[in-house]
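Section 3.1 - Work completed
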Amino acid sequence: MDISISLSDADLKLFVDGMKSAQKKVDKLDPLSIVGAARKLLEDTTGRTLPDFVSTRMKHVETMIEMVEDAGFGLPEPDRENVLAALTYFTSPDDIIPDNVPVLGFLDDAIMIELCVRDLKPEIEGYRDFRFWRDNEASRRGVNAAELMLTRVEWAEARRVEILERIHRRREESYTGGKWSPLLFHVH
């Protein structure tokens, strides 16, 4: 059975207020405790029969945990605090719908995860790009990605070099394309 819900601005305000409350708690909590509680939530939900709308969103919690823990990625502090606030909300058993309510206990968490993923989309996409690059770099070097200590600075430099090479390659292809066109610049 499919059920579709629409959230009004008043409904969304409950989630905004919940996130503001979580953001206030983050300063008072140890990041390791927050991450530990988030990992425990994932462990507690693993193997449980959860509605698909919840289980598909729980995967994002793992990504958020990895973003916070990944020293190589070096998530900037304001972004890190936002992710920790999201994790704090998810791990609170007394959120909008208590987690122990059968079937619906994680509904509010799933909605909040969806809202956070939308808000954190640039950070999550950047992290996934970084991991993809690091995994490829580890493969190229023949080492385990978990043991490869590369940073975002190295990633950014590799991307810069890649972009410059692509620019020069495209420029060269335009010179050798067979069509004549007036050139203002010529790459030597």
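Second construct:
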Amino acid sequence: MNHLRALAVLLCGLAAGAVLLGCDPDAPAPAASTTESGAGSAPPVFVAPADGEAALDGDRAAGFHARGNEPFWSVEVAGDKLLYNTPDTQPGVELAATRTDTATDVEFRGVHDGKDFVLIITPGHCEDSMSDQDYDYTATFSDGERQLTGCASAED
């Protein structure tokens, strides 16, 4: 039984030593706490996205233009109105959607002719597979029958 007690003491000592080794004696003191009134708080810091990436936080673009290849498709977004285009739907199908901004993307959802649809715009580098043009967003359009993927750009 004494062996188990000695082993437990040894393991506790090793764990305490490992914790102490991880401490940085020159680490800065924690920032002052924020009060309910906000006194003493520092202004928020915005970290710019890496080159070629778009930010979503605070990015309330008035609209987007999403497009993809094989099959060719596009969706122009202006407020809560979407114009869905394919070679078969010229001059396009108008869709009414509800916009939802999440932490990771912007979603436009609605129902057309009894079918749910969703357009999801996500920040991130996207390269058009035919034109090699770079975009700041990826796009996915689903209408219950198919899922189309492509790129998107913000429109003002």
